[in-house]
Amino acid sequence: MRRLFVLLLLALAGCAHATATQVGSRTFRIEGPGIPGGSTAPNKRIAERLCPGGYRLLHQGIHEGTNGGTFSLRGMTFTNWTIRCI
Fold it and tell me: E strand or H helix at 42, and its extent?
């Protein structure tokens, strides 16, 4: 039973990364993964990778997960950013 739990945690840890989409010249939309507590660390990491000279946060959206789909997202906080490279 413990082995199954550890394997499940490792599988879910691979899903905890932010994704970025370019929406304009030097402008990106970053969609953060669902993280309990609402950490923005994955968003910061990808923003710093996209904009090594610095970035400006244009918009931040935060929403809570719901109890839907095949597994519960309750307690998960999702953060979405729109940034512009300096």
Answer: helix 41-50
25-62 tens-digit pLDDT: 999 999 988 887 778 888 999 999 999 999 999 999 98
Tokens of 19: 């994704």
Q: Is the pLDDT of residue 63 over 80?
A: yes
Q: Please give the single-letter amino acid code of residue 77.
A: T
SS3 for 64-80 is ECCCCCCCCCCCEEEEE
The neighbouring-strand residues paired with 76 are: 36
Does the model's pTM come out above 0.85? no
Burial 23-57 (b: 16+ CB within 10 A, else e): eeeeebbbbbbbbeeeebebbbebbeeebeeebee
